[in-house]
Amino acid sequence: MENLLFGIMLFFANLVSCGLSFIIFKYLYIKRKSKGYLYLITIAFSAVYTLIKLFQLSIILSIAFLITYIGVGILGFFEMKKHVSQ
Asked: Any transmembrane segments, and where (predicted)?
């Protein structure tokens, strides 16, 4: 039961960090016209950390995290591609 609660808390904390890194990416890349690699590096490091932590909890939760990170990464990639082509 403790592991489940910890996993749920970790899930929401990582959703918040995903959102924050997406906001940072949009600010840096769109407003400042700098590269959006900071966003991708942030997502990659937090995804690896999350997977290391979650393999201690359960495989289902780690798959949910992986899907979340892949989704946010794809969104960021298409957002970056859209602004590069303009």
From this structure: 6-29, 36-52, 58-78
Is the CB of residue 29 less than 8 Å from the CB of residue 39? Answer: yes
Neighbours of 18 (CB within 10 A): 23
Residue 64 belongs to some domain of the structure = yes
Residue 13 lies in a domain: no
The string of DSSP letters for 1-21 reads -HHHHHHHHHHHHHHHHHHHH
pLDDT tens digit at each of 86 positions of the chain? 566 777 677 777 766 766 666 666 666 666 655 555 666 666 666 766 666 666 666 666 666 667 777 777 777 777 767 766 65
Per-residue buried b or exposed e for 35-67, using 16+ beta carbons within 10 Å of the residue's own CB: ebeebbebbeebbeebeebbeebeeebbeebee
pTM over 0.70: no
